[in-house]
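Notes from the 1:1 (GR / supervisor)

We went over the backlog. Supervisor wanted to see one worked example end to end before approving the batch request, so GR pasted a single chain during the call. The sequence is below; no edits were made to it. Supervisor asked that the structure be written out right there so they could see what the output format looks like.
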Amino acid sequence: MSLFDLRADSIGVVTGEGPGFTVAAGQMTLEIPEGESDAHILLKNGVKLVYTPVKEKE
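Structure output shown during the call:
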C-alpha cells in the first residue's frame, strides 16, 4: 500500500450528468499516471457523451 498511488476501476457501467451533459461508459478507471500529479479519468468500452448547451436566462 502506498499513500502516493491512486487507482480505482469500476466493475461495470458508469453514468453521470451535469449542467448540459450526460455521459455513460462501459467501464471507468481513475488513476494518477506515473510522473503526473493530477488524477485522470479514463472512460472506455462504449462511451456516450450527449451535450446540450444550457440556455442563458434573459
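Supervisor's comment: The chain has a mean pLDDT of 89.
Batch request approved.
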